[in-house]
Amino acid sequence: MTKKIIQKQQLESIYIKYNRREYVHPDPLEFLYRYHRLEDRELVGMVAASLAYGRVAQIIKSVSDVLDRMGPSPHQFLMASSSFQIESTFKGFVHRFATGKEVSRLLTGIKGVLEHCGSLYQTFQGFVCPSHGTVLPALSLFCRQIDETAGGNIGHLLPMPDRGSACKRMNLFLRWMIRKDSVDPGGWEDVPATMLIIPLDVHMHRIGQKLGFTARKQTDIRTAMEITSGFKQLIPEDPVRYDFVLTRLGIRKDLCGKDYF
Fold first, then answer.
1. CA distances (Å), 45 to each of 51, 101, 179, 234, 254, in order?
2. DSSP-derived secondary structure for 91-120
3. I need a labelling partner for 5 at 20 to 30 A (CA). Which of 36, 66, 153, 220 fits?
């Protein structure tokens, strides 16, 4: 049996065992399950992904705070609010080094894109070109449009792929919106999962090295691409299929991650 077959069998056994909603908490992904309308879910996904850095307990608290301020329909709140009202709503909000002003700028940029294109899905889809092979060119244009619509003041909440960042948070957002299984809710049906890039963090970087997918030491976009290419050799139609379960093993201490990696 070849090494690739063994790797895929091992990864698939982890996926079957742990790719369940009962293992999602604590993860900002859980907030998306509260919303049935795609227009709300994609907006919630942007908020949750943008704040997905730092201790997970603080992430959950901060995302919950933002969504509580927006009411039962984040999309309706955003479209009915002026820039001044948005800024006032998030006055006093802090998540590590993100302030309420930065959150309000992000949301104001998103609102402008929604008014122009109708939805985040339509906006992103308009930038996708299958010949590019990955979502990165589309992601760069997508982030750039939101940033420019906000006046270029969003800062670290919206990482830019063309600056060399691994863009873990935005690739995480795309995984949530494009893939659909027991964990990822999906909704962006016409963007192929084959184009997704692994959301690279320290834990996934270490796993990629152990699997022999990369020897690079930097946690950057080049390393994310190498690790994604490794997964594509095992499952070309869905290269980020194992992202959730592999990162769960690093977060959920009650799962037997030591038995695998």
1. 10, 19, 13, 28, 26
2. TT-EETTEEHHHHHHHHHHHHHHHHHHSSH
3. 220
Listed by start position, the domains of the chain span 3-252
User: Kind and range of the H or E element at 150?
Assistant: none
251-256 LR contacts (CB < 8 Å, sep 24+) = 251/26, 251/27, 251/56, 251/203, 252/23, 255/18, 255/23
pLDDT score, position 187: 98
Distance between CA atoms of residues 140 and 167, nearest Å: 10
Task: Give me 64's structure tokens.
Answer: 């919950």
- Phi, psi for 95 (deg, rounded to 5): -135, 105
So what's the pLDDT on residue 111?
A: 98
User: Helix or strand or coil: residue 186?
Assistant: coil
23-39: buried (b, 16+ CB within 10 Å) or exposed (e) per residue?
bbeebbbebbeebeebb
Residue-wise pLDDT tens digits, 100-139 = 999 999 999 999 999 999 999 999 999 999 999 999 999 9
Sequence-separated (6 or more) residues with CB below 8 Å from residue 243: 175, 198, 199, 204
Tokens of 101: 């002003």
